[in-house]
Amino acid sequence: xxxxxxxxxGSLDDRDAARAVRLAGGEAVALWHGDSDLSxxxxxxxxxxxxxxDYLRCGAIARFAPVMSSIVSRAEGGMPxxxxxxxxxxxxxxxxxxxxxxxxxxxxxICRDQRLVIESTDSDxxxxxxxxxxxxxxxxxxxxxxxxxxxxxxxxxxDGLVIARYLEVNPNGSxxxxxxIRNARGNVVGLMPHPEHAVEALxxxxxxxxxxxxxxxxxxxxxxxxx
Amino acid sequence: xxxxVVDVMLKPEILDPxxxxxxxxxxxxxxxxxxxxxxxxxxVITLDGAMDADRAAVLERLAGELLSNPVxxxxxxxxxxxx
Lengths: 227, 83
Known about the structure:
The structure holds two protein chains of two kinds. By secondary structure, chain A is α/β, with parallel strands linked by helices. Chain A contains five helices and eleven strands. Chain A has a single domain (about 1-225), classed as Rossmann fold (3-Layer(aba) Sandwich), CATH 3.40.50. Chain A has helices at about 15-25, 65-75, 85-95, 150-160, 210-225, and strands at about 1-5, 25-30, 45, 80-85, 100, 110-120, 135-140, 145, 160-165, 180, 190. Chain B has helices at about 15-30, 55-65, and strands at about 1-10, 40-45, 75-80. Chain B is elongated. The model of chain B has no long low-confidence stretch (mean pLDDT about 95). The interface between A and B is medium-sized, with 20 and 12 residues.
């Protein structure tokens, strides 16, 4: 399975994301922000970092990159897309996911190993988890406070679209402790913490993050078997 | 030349931690009775020539698509024509 990892000017975690894809058993394909051709990939990861210097708003300029037009249209057709941190911000700015990410309520940049609970396993990127499974992955952000209006938050919870919540401490003021969400179809997932940094014992606090990347391979396998 | 000023503010219901930090600083620096501070952004766009209906429509659209995020922000747009 070919999984594209987009590099924007200012992306930081594209190499780690590509490595996570390879460790999970996928083929990582480098995609450039200025190309609208997606090189026949089957899924896309939008990695963390500070695309375009976070100018204007995080993800606001990346949304208009040529590569994003192709990704938005393929995502609307069902292609799996995972946005991590800055990638989550880009997905919200692109309106592929509802809500927005705002400045941490305490104003500090935070970097810690964060405990999460996986709530929805009914997505292309979380199906290898067990519902209610607790994981620990790194979290690092300055603008990770998830906000949406009350009606949207109620709908996310009511429809089971919250894929992960913060446990023990809410690190950034996210409404209802939301760490990640998915769209109704389950192919688009946005997550503020960084599973791609928790895929190897040598460098990560755990290897819990790997399941996000194996999930999308499981998704592909399942769809081939069912086809 | 026309000058277009777009002011962008967080919606009232969105927490503004920067504004709150500034409020604290104003108090520490001797300003009493500060009820609230909200921090926003201002874009000053200078156009070649006068404003026309086409560009006004594009600006109005881009103020909501690019310069502000309607999920969390409101904007106001004012046009100043140089005499």
